[in-house]
Amino acid sequence: MSIEQFIDNEVKSNDVVLFMKGTPQFPQCGFSGQVVQILDHIGVGYKGLNVLESAELRNGIKVYSNWPTIPQLYVKGEFVGGCDIIREMFQAGELQQLFSDKGIPVDAAV
């Protein structure tokens, strides 16, 4: 399986996927950590993939999305954005709405 096929499979078979540096339990960069905090805060389940474990994955995801930076968030197979976009969407309530629109449960208490 090529790296493109692996990425495509992960993006399409998981509702929410975060390509990040480190893991959700131990983010290894501030930007990845911010996105993890936002997702955890709104109570969305997601799969975190650590790009630091594989140079092939780290480079492959940038090619796949045509986006130069990590982290990258995918929801229902669609690329949503990196840290700045996710933070702005969260602050405006748009991220929560996106999850709602896609049928992904969020923590209603937020």
TrEMBL record:
Position of the signal peptide: none
Sorted UniProt keywords: 2Fe-2S, Iron, Iron-sulfur, Metal-binding, Redox-active center
Family matches, as Pfam families: Glutaredoxin
Keyword Iron-sulfur: yes
CDD domains: GRX_PICOT_like (cd03028)
GO MF term set: 2 iron, 2 sulfur cluster binding; disulfide oxidoreductase activity; metal ion binding
Listed SUPFAM superfamilies: Thioredoxin-like
Domain named Glutaredoxin: residues: 16-80
Binding site residues for [2Fe-2S] cluster: C29
Similarity field: Belongs to the glutaredoxin family. Monothiol subfamily.
Protein name: Glutaredoxin
Upper classification of the organism: Bacteria, Pseudomonadati, Pseudomonadota, Alphaproteobacteria, Hyphomicrobiales
